[in-house]
Amino acid sequence: MAEGPRATPLASMPDDAPIPPRLAAPEAGTGTPPPLAGLGLITVFALLSLAIHLVTLAITPYGIHRDELLYLAMGKHLQLWRMGFPPAIAVLTWAARGIFGDTLFAVRLFPALAGALLTALTGLIARELGGGRAAQALAMLAVCLGPLFLHTAALCQPVVLDQLCWTLGFLALIRLGQRRNGSGWWLLGLAGGLGLLTKFSIGFFAVGVGVALVISPQRASLASRWPWLALLTAAVIGSATLVGQFRLGFPVIRDMHDLQAQQLYRVTVGGFLRGQVEMLGPAFLLAVLGLIGLLMGKSMRPYRTVGWTCLVTFLVLLGLHGKAYYIGPIYPMLLAAGTATTDSLAHNWRRAVRLSLTILILSFDAVAMPFGLPILPPSQMARFAGGSGLKDAVTSNRGVVLALPQDYADMLGWEDLTGAVAETWRKLPLDQQGQAVLLARNYGEAGALEFFGPRIGLVQPIVELDHSLLWPLPTGRLHGPVIAVGYSPEELRSYFRVVELARYFDHPWMVPEERNLPICVAKEPHPRSPGP
After folding, report:
1. What pLDDT score was predicted for residue 6?
2. In the prediction, which pLDDT does 453 show?
3. Any residues with CB less than 8 A from the CB of 347 and at least 6 apart, and which?
4. Hey, CA dihedral for 207, 212, 214, 215, is it positive or negative?
5. pTM for the structure as a whole
6. How far is Cα 2 from Cα 55, in angstroms, rounded to an integer?
7. pLDDT beneath 50: ranges in the chain
8. Which residues are paired to 395 by β-bridges?
9. Using CB atoms within 10 A as the burial measure, which of 43, 246, 273, 443 is most buried?
10. CA geometry: angle 377, 381, 387, nearest 5 deg
11. Distances 221 to 186, 230, 311, 434, 529 between C-alpha atoms, Å
């Protein structure tokens, strides 16, 4: 197909000038992508995002998170085709430790890079939708400094990787709207496959895309080979996750039942909706504008599938009582669409709306930044959180109101706990120390013993019953003592003849279930009693 007239380079346009529709190709379907001129702005915001997280790493008074200890253990015991969780996060922690060692920098560098890529993708999507440089800057500003995205990129968890995969999938849907079928479907398959390796919640994205395709004019594409090639591509790329679930009997089903029974039943419709505003602040208005633009805007007509995907996934998670942040991956897309939609406003209105949104977003982000980045010491953070009036921000997964946000409490005390266990171990007779086994009640405790223990000479075998692939039960009879963390003497006496309470461990900032932990020494297990 012949190219149209050569467009004016973006770099020479005024800051608030919209990209002409022929560059974003929303109507013509020429398959011509926007020019790459002016990508320096996107690079600047990506580097700003990375710099924020590197500075946070240098000054944070917090340590490794409970979940990070689990992912570090998954990386150490990596079984790519036999894991109960999507393995991408384990592979990243394995690579990070291999390159940078056992440091906080190693643990959190890759999430920081993912946050920078998410910022860049947001700006790129704003360009693809026809947004000018001012629109791109506002979209990236909302992601780069938004507490939701700061927080997910500040921890080594699958959440930021999940956001990145969804956003890549939305970019694929935009390309399909531009009738770039080849690159669009292959990119969608890539996003789905990487999502499978990252987090099971990519399934909600898949449901949203499926429903959106059926109810949009693009449903005709389902009769072609392209969607099925994309599905096959996703399955091949994400095969490690699928094979692991098959081999282990689909533990994700059990985990979902446990999550629903222990946590999700507390999530109400009102709490879910309120959580969106609390996470995004004034940027939520921009996201709503983006959804309206995608579903109703004339210039956005080719991208109706994107809008329907966002709306369907939102409603599905609302109906399933998902946590508020579960729907976070749709917001980079909606923020980019919202800023691009402002380009359709009259010039004076456009500048007024953008200026107002920029001021509101920056003001909110500046005030809420301590909720996004772990920079305030615990005592100061507790005063800040208490004064904020945001009860949901300091309510734990179990419905308990804490002094700190739970993620902050879960970054404290683990090294001290390991030291307390080591002290108990050192008090054993020398002939028993080498035969001792450590029994932990949960993966945070087990992960802490495995990560911090070797630093202080504690290299005993570890048992954690709910994650036996990482910390398996001993084979055969125990010949030495068991140092049990978190089990009461009464519980242990059902399995051991001799139980001694060695001490209690406490830490003022940890979550209640990790406070006043009994540390016991148990010996002489009853016959056919492997442990609690």
Report:
1. 36
2. 96
3. 16
4. positive
5. 0.89
6. 49
7. 1-35, 37
8. 401
9. 443
10. 155
11. 14, 12, 21, 65, 59
